[in-house]
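Notes continue from the previous slide.

Worked example: a multi-chain complex. Inputs as given:
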Amino acid sequence: MFKRHQNLSTEKERKIETPGPTFKKTKKRPERKTVGVRLERKKDASLLNFNLKRPYPPEKIRIPIPAFAEPCVKIGQVVQLGQKIAEPQGPEGVSLHAGMPGTVEKIALFPSATGSKERMIEIRKHGEPKTLLPAEIRKGWEEIPAEELPKIFRNSGLVTTDPLMEPVHGKIERYAGARTVLINGCEPEPYVTCEQTLILSHALEILKGAELLKKALGAEKIFFAFEACNLEMIELIKSKIYFLKWEHAEVRTVPALYPQGLESTLLRAWFPGEEKKGVVFPASTAFAVYEAVAQQKPFYERVVTVGGECVVEPRSLWLPVGISLHDAIHACKGVMREPRKILMGGPMAGAAQTTIEVPVMAGTNAILALPEEIAREETGVLAGEPCIRCNLCVDHCPVLLSPAMITLAAEQKEFSIAEEWDVRECIECGNCAYVCPSKRPMLRLIRSTSVLSDPAVKHG
Amino acid sequence: MAETKTFYKTTLPPHIHSADSLSRRYWGQLIALLPVFVTACFVGHAEILRVFLICLISAAAFEFLPARLFRKKENPQNGEALLAAALFSLLMPAKCPPEVVVLGVFMMVFVAKELFGGTGSYPLQPLFLARVFLQLCFPTIMSEPMLLAGGGNVWTLVSIGLGGIILFKQKQVYWETPVLFMSGCFVCEALFGGSGTPLTFFSGVLLTSFFLLADPVTLPLTRRGTAFFILGAAFLSSRLSPEGFSIGSAGYAVLLMNLLTPWIDVWLKSVPYKMEKPRKATCST
């Protein structure tokens, strides 16, 4: 339709048309060596079902209780959607909110995604769900002073939506004095599209959330980081920045290589040697911040990609924190064949789960059901053939380590040698294990050194 | 719709792997070697087939022996023995008695490789070690022209070049390896002079730079280190013998540089990006 319209417009009309937004050309920064692996992206399947939906509430949800929070509900109590169910304890704590209306059934230990059992609040569905009420806009939310914002973040239960799940107010306090807020829209892992879907659906809210984060930090600039191949996101955010007339915001790109676009690689690339000058928040955290401040909505749900070849209808959707993987997969019409592995997170850094009863957490960006052909492991003779020093791991390490040397030392239990080769700088991105032709268990060996060579462990 | 299981197997990430594998690499090198081998049969001596068969049978036997002796897991389909046999037969002289070939293969497979721990563990390039050993024991036999380079033919050069292109296409070698080795040899030869015929010299340099240095096990771990190794090997192989570059002198040069490899690894170690680690999550989840 767009094209036809362009064709119909005459030469004269075209001249009268107002010029499109002209973007400021940013200064060219010196080129840095970008290292990574070009992975097959496999994002199209989940992007086909583009609109973000909320599934029908499940029978029960189990919400993990954070370390510095104490439950403030009793067993048998009826809770509403978004009601506070745990109070923050100490300066580092955040509150916890119910992701579904219902009755508190249990407060007990349940299996979690880490493999161990954790304390959780189980809420069972109570009657038929009511329709959602429209959000109540906070009066004068744009004029809230910067000192008030961390308190709002704390009472809204805001944690960063990356695997670290750090409280947002804690991160702001820790990075006090940072000059730049980086809003990360990169998803270098295959299958994962939750940030992309959210940015394309709610660009303005994310920009407003970024502004709030900048205000809370007292920073001067906002950088939006995208992968160079996601042109529509780049154009969308650029045009929004142009129309908002924000001089302090800028869109920057990284090459579409794994692990470029992870927090640590972004800081290394853009603030070499002075990483404290920038602080990275995922775009979905910026969205949650906007909702908490402007719409008074506490953090109890997030966008998660449910995907992988086995899922019938792969898509990104809103899931309440605490919904089990089983219910999440069933919200996407279940699996069409038996998966080999169920992953929480992407295939490069995500954790494989033993059971699908574990709950979704604030840091879960994807739930993947992968079939045998994709998640196959070599068994028998081919499993862990010897290292032939082919240098592939050295050439693909984003931190410029020598994984071959470190793992050879780890095999011989020479942890001091691994230490000399800077094993502590490893960001555990998994590139070395991905490219290794001998299929050696690189990450297991690297983790064995970092655990066992820890002086605290060594000396009891 | 299929039902989901209750329990799944867990492993550490990454859960996907590249399609690269050891056998893919060895078979890839064999494919690159095929044009060289065919040309050697047609242009040079058909004798090469006899030597190759002896090499192959003895290499397979010497691979099998330690697998039984040391109870190692072995993957005979990965083509490693075949590759070693093919390369070794190219380096043998035309009229070579079978027992010398078998001794050379014993030296290459059993002593230089398996006794040091098998694939990936040997400190010295087995191919050159065996060749140098035979050169020291049987100087008269080994001084005869080689099966491959003996012809000193243009077609030999073309086929080695073609094999090199196939190796590049498979991304098995750095582009610097052949470029630096060839330019190093040419510069040394031009500066100090050599006595070999140009065609023999060219085919020897090409074969060494593409195929004999393609085995990464004894090379240093970084790109810079490999470049240093190659330059050192090129200089030494041109200066070790008064006649200039030959496969024999290249053998000594590579073995000498192999001894330096651990030091090169440490000297030219890449400096990692260092940064403050993010603090551990405060949430227990």
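Summary box: Chain B has eleven helices and no strands. The CA atoms of residues 225 and 268 of chain B lie 6 Å apart.
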